[in-house]
Design goal:
The protein is an alpha/beta fold. It has helices at residues 21-31, 48-52, 77-93, 119-130, 144-156, 172-180, 199-209, 216-228; strands at residues 9-14, 36-41, 62-66, 72-76, 98-102, 136-141, 160-165, 189-192, 213-215. It has two domains: 9-119 and 218-228, no CATH class; 122-216, Response regulator (Rossmann fold). A four-stranded parallel β-sheet has the order 7-6-8-9, with helices on both faces. The chain has a three-stranded parallel β-sheet with strand order 2-1-5, with helices on both faces. A two-stranded antiparallel sheet has the order 3-4. This is Protein AroM.
C-alpha cells in the first residue's frame, strides 16, 4: 500500500542562492499545512567572490536578489540564466505539482521551454483583474536601474503607471519616503514588483497611501497552490 500524499509538492527556483528562509516561510504559511518544498538557487555553489565577479553588464541585465545571509545584491540576469538553466531543468523534471521561478523579471530564454510558473505573468494578470485600463498604478521596484524598463512596461499594458525604486532591504523610514513620493500620483492600486518584498513592506505602503497593494511573492505562491491543489 502506497504512502498517502501529504500536502502540495512544489519546486521553486530563486535567482540568487538557497536557502531563502523568508521565502520558504511565506510558502508554508500560505499553504496552511504540510508542503513538500524543494527550493534551489540559480547561483547555488558559487562563492560570494564569484557572485561579486559577475555584476550586471547594463541596466536591462540588472536583477536584485537577497542572499541567504540577508545581503541585497545586484546580479547579472545573463549569468542567472547561464547558471540556473540546469537547476530549472532538474526541477521541471522532478515531477512536482508545480514549479515556479521566484522572480518577477521576464525570462524569454526559459519561457515556453519548461512547464513552470512565472510570477511576472501571474502578477500582470492579477493587476488586469483588479484595475481597469487607464487606472492609476503605483509600482515599487528594487533598483533605480530597473525603473526605466518597468515604467514603460506597465504603461504599455494600459495603465497610468508611476514607478519608484525601493530596496527590499529598506527600513521603515525609507519605505515611507518611497511611498510618499507616489502620493501626488494618487495610485488606485500598488504593486510590489519583486519577490523579495515582504508583507511588512506591503503593510507600510498601504498605510501611507491608503490604496490596496499586491505583493508579488504571495500573488505567485497563491497561484502555485491553486495549481498544486
Amino acid at each position: 500500500m502506497s504512502n498517502p500524499r501529504i500536502g502540495p509538492r512544489i519546486g521553486a527556483l530563486v535567482v540568487g542562492q538557497s536557502p531563502r528562509p523568508e521565502v520558504e516561510a511565506v510558502i508554508r504559511d500560505l499553504a496552511g499545512g504540510p508542503v513538500d518544498l524543494d527550493l534551489r538557487g540559480c547561483l547555488d555553489g558559487l562563492s560570494r567572490a564569484e557572485i561579486d565577479a559577475i555584476p550586471p553588464e547594463s541596466d536591462p541585465d540588472t536583477l536584485f536578489t537577497r542572499l541567504p545571509n540577508g545581503d541585497g545584491v545586484k546580479i547579472s540576469k545573463r549569468h542567472v540564466v547561464a547558471h540556473g538553466t540546469a537547476q530549472l531543468e532538474a526541477l521541471s523534471a522532478a515531477g512536482y505539482d508545480v514549479t515556479m521561478v521566484m522572480c518577477t523579471g521576464e525570462f524569454p530564454d526559459w519561457l515556453g521551454k519548461y512547464p513552470v510558473l512565472f510570477p511576472s505573468r501571474t502578477l500582470n494578470a492579477m493587476v488586469r483583474g483588479c484595475l481597469a485600463e487607464g487606472g492609476r498604478l503605483g509600482v515599487f521596484t528594487p533598483l533605480a536601474e530597473q525603473c526605466a524598463k518597468s515604467r514603460p512596461r506597465w504603461r504599455e499594458a494600459g495603465y497610468d503607471a508611476e514607478v519608484v525604486a525601493l530596496s527590499p532591504n529598506a527600513g521603515e523610514a525609507e519605505i515611507r519616503a518611497a511611498a510618499e513620493s507616489l502620493r501626488a500620483h494618487r495610485p488606485e492600486l500598488l504593486v510590489l514588483d519583486c519577490m523579495s518584498y515582504t508583507r511588512d513592506t506591503k503593510r507600510i505602503v498601504r498605510e501611507v497611501l491608503g490604496a490596496p497593494a499586491i505583493l508579488a511573492v504571495s500573488s505567485a505562491v497563491r497561484t502555485a497552490l491553486e495549481l498544486a491543489g
